[in-house]
What does this fold into?
Amino acid sequence: MAWFSLAKIALQAGGKIYANRQRAKVAMSDAQLLHAERQARGEESYQGKLLEARSTDLKDEFVLIILSAPIIILAWGVFSDNPDALNKVKIFFEHFQQLPTWFTSLWVLVCASIFGIKGTQVFRNGRNNKVDKK
It folds into this structure.
């Protein structure tokens, strides 16, 4: 008897999930229609292809790999049990730390724009956090 009540609950939950998905599809269709109407009146520009292109590109993953590379290099130097490797990693990070500020700032802005963050937000939020900590 308990199995029947569990099955009933599962069917109700499944029905609710299906109904919510259908409502989401209708809402997305309505939003697309409203956007198309605004485009026709010249109030908005077309953004559909831009959003489609961003969903299929791999640049976010590429930047994540690039940003993770120093951590991987550091881990390799520590766990390789090779003293020469660890010394080379130390030299790498010493040189990495000496990069000019303009280059580091440019790199942060590029990475932020790839992830959809405005560059001004990165520096403004960073400045506000430093002021609050003092």
About this structure: Residues 2-40 form the longest helix (39 residues).
